[in-house]
């Protein structure tokens, strides 16, 4: 007797999952970019605002995925993850955190949509958020298996 396990977010490439989550979040009414998001940089380590107009949805999807894998996490943990290197003259580059306002607003919107919840240790993914990630992962995995049928053995 074979036990069939459905694919989860651990079984699909992160870029495809984030893209799929971002497309889903565009249709979610609680997740809307603020008016300042088209002018703001994503952190002090960047020189310009993001080129992609839909960067807000991509950031919200990446935050949800990060909480799925590593939750509970706080804002400072996510700032470190989404931060980057900043050149300081002709010395070595230093790590700078990402902008906390954009992360905080994403977390508030994800919480209003019911995908995450706040606990005493940080924010975690709710069962609805986990179900969304797993459902989209299953769809992505089915598309990947069509291209490479040998991968169907991984899950089954």
Summarize this entry quickly.
Helices cover 49% and strands 8% of the residues. By secondary structure, the protein is mainly α.
Descriptive keywords:
mainly alpha, 49% helix, Arc Repressor Mutant, subunit A, 156 residues, two-stranded antiparallel sheet, 6 helices
CATH homologous superfamily (4th level) name:
Winged helix-like DNA-binding domain superfamily/Winged helix DNA-binding domain
The level of helicity is 40-55%
- Main sheet, how many strands, which sense, barrel? 2 strands, antiparallel
Q: How is the CATH topology named? A: Arc Repressor Mutant, subunit A
The total domain count is: 1
What overall form do the CA principal axes indicate?
globular
Structural notes for this entry:
This protein is mainly alpha-helical. It has a single domain, classed as Arc Repressor Mutant, subunit A (Orthogonal Bundle), CATH 1.10.10.10. 49% of the residues lie in helices and 8% in strands. The protein is built from six helices and four strands. α1 packs across α2 and α2 crosses α4. The longest helix has 21 residues. The relative contact order is 0.20.
């Amino acid at each position: 007797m074979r036990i069939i396990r459905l694919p989860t977010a651990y079984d699909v490439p992160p870029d495809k999952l984030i893209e799929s989550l971002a497309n889903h979040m565009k249709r979610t009414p609680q997740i809307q970019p603020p008016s300042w998001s088209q002018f703001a940089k994503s952190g002090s380590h960047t020189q310009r605002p993001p080129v992609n107009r839909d960067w807000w949805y991509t950031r919200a999807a990446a935050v949800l995925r990060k909480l799925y894998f590593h939750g509970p996490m706080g804002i400072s943990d996510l700032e470190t993850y989404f931060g980057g290197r900043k050149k300081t003259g002709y010395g070595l580059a230093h790590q700078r955190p990402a902008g906390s306002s954009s992360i905080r607003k994403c977390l508030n919107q994800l919480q209003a949509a019911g995908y995450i919840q706040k606990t005493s240790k940080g924010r975690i993914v709710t069962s609805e958020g986990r179900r969304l990630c797993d459902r989209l992962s299953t769809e992505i995995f089915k598309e990947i298996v069509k291209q490479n049928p040998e991968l169907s053995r991984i899950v089954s």
